[in-house]
Write the structure tokens for this entry.
Amino acid sequence: MRKLLATTMLVAAATSISACSTLRGAAIGGAGGAGVAAATGGDVRKGAAVGGVGGAVVGTVVD
């Protein structure tokens, strides 16, 4: 029973940490995408959206 509980807690902690990396990557990517779009005269909302998606993917993969 203790091994099952310990395994469950470990999986929950790993999932939580992975979610943090995904959200952090999305935030950084969104800010970067908006900045690049603003600097190049593009649509800031589209740049933020694309950067956010890319950042979330990178955050998930790297973690």
